UniProtKB/TrEMBL annotation:
Modification sites for N6-(pyridoxal phosphate)lysine: 81
Coiled coil: none
Gene: cds1
Protein name: L-cysteine desulfhydrase Cds1
Family to which the UniProt record says this protein belongs: Belongs to the cysteine synthase/cystathionine beta-synthase family. Cds1 subfamily.
Alphabetically ordered keywords of this record: Cytoplasm, Lyase, Pyridoxal phosphate
Length: 385
């Protein structure tokens, strides 16, 4: 598979023509003017945006434990991926990879593509999302609403090669979130998600969380949070929750970066059939493998607890966070735990909130629902789970 740099060079302008230096100078000046304006627009979007909320999940007061969800669904494009898309566009622009009039191509199961379509429209370049045919209709609608075009594949494992080929064919730029997510974001601060969490916790009774739980699609969010924690010398531990049909857990436990699996994740936005380059296993402290039925049970429990629907990836993280809370209760420890509300549930009404879809997938959420109810009622996690 070609790299973004190779994709860009396939359609990039060649070096200056000594016979036409005046035209080249004029074109270069026009490009630099376009680049400055594009970067200004992306940065202005961030400047207009308020921070996302930190919501409390209700737990019994006597436990002495606070559970929070960082609500990333309130970004203008509705998900955690808005931060990533902004960083990737700034990275691509400042590296000279994104050029006026040339398309940006991305391999995505949906939410990243929605956010990137927004930024592509903001700076006036075409956008093509390469995605599985099973992507939720609502995400497809949102990508097209923001001016993007959807290119479907039947096998999610072919998204990478298809995206790279489209970049070559069109002279565009393959953004490649799975490679560049961890390096495009400034993990030392600059209003990244980790810095935001700690700032919002400053006046809470446990301002330094005991655990932060993230989920992995690219691995960029967990890398950003973990690096920030180490850089700032916090004692917080980082857990990554991984769904079924994903390789991050197996790769982390075995130390094998080449591990793969044969089918795609049912939890949109997270879980990958290979260990992605942006996943940084050495930066995190713990991983949990979460059954898909448990992820669905958790998002439904979240709606019952705070009245908010969320996507399946939120449920994967929340399930792991609740297990950590149970461990803290059992050990008599106090403190805070933070996980992420990644995107809104209205994108998945025909999936995670549909009993018909659950039956078709063979998913029984009842045992996992009972486990959550038992924990919240007694403080004890059922031993079978």
């Amino acid at each position: 598979m070609s790299t973004p740099q190779q994709d860009q060079s396939a359609g990039a302008p060649q070096g200056p023509d000594p016979v036409a230096t005046l035209d080249v100078d004029h074109t270069d000046a026009a490009y630099r003017s376009w680049l400055k304006e594009a970067v200004r627009k992306v940065q202005a979007d961030a400047n207009r945006s308020a921070d996302t909320h930190l919501l409390r999940f209700p737990l019994p007061e006597e436990w002495g434990i606070d559970l929070y969800l960082k609500d990333e669904s309130t970004h203008i494009t509705g998900s955690l991926k808005h931060r990533l898309a902004r960083s990737l566009f700034l990275y691509g622009l400042c590296n000279g990879w994104i050029r006026p009039g040339r398309p940006v191509i991305e391999a995505s199961s949906g939410s990243t593509a929605v956010s990137e379509a927004y930024f592509a429209k903001l700076i006036g370049v075409p956008f093509i999302a390469v995605m599985p045919r099973t992507t939720s209709p609502e995400k497809i609608r949102l990508i097209e609403f923001h001016g993007g075009r959807c290119h479907f594949v039947d096998d999610s494992r072919t998204m990478y090669e298809e995206s790279a080929a489209l970049a070559v064919d069109t002279g565009g730029h393959y953004m490649d979130q799975f490679t560049y997510a961890e390096r495009a974001t400034d993990w030392r601060g600059n209003n990244n998600i980790a810095e935001s969490i700690y700032r919002q916790l400053e006046l809470e009774r446990y301002p330094e969380p005991t655990w932060i739980v993230a989920t992995a699609g690219t691995g960029g969010t967990s890398a950003t949070i973990a690096r920030y924690v180490h850089y700032m010398q916090h004692d917080t531990r980082i857990c990554v929750a991984d769904p079924e049909n994903s390789c991050f857990f197996e790769g982390w436990t075995t130390g094998d970066p080449d591990v793969t699996c044969d089918c795609g994740s049912r939890i949109e936005g997270i879980g990958r059939p290979r260990m992605e380059p942006s996943f940084v296993p050495g930066a995190i402290d713990r991983m949990m493998k979460v059954p898909d039925a448990a992820s669905v049970a958790a998002v439904r429990a979240l709606e019952g607890a705070i009245g908010r629907k969320a996507g399946g990836s939120t449920g994967t993280g929340l399930w792991s966070a609740l297990k950590i809370v149970a461990e803290m209760v059992a050990e008599g420890r106090t403190g805070s735990v933070v996980t992420l509300l990644c995107d809104p549930g209205d994108r998945y009404l025909d999936k995670y909130y549909s009993d018909q879809w659950l039956a078709h997938q063979g998913l029984d959420i009842a045992p996992y629902t009972r486990a959550i109810e038992t924990l919240l009622a007694t403080g004890v996690w059922p031993s079978a789970d």
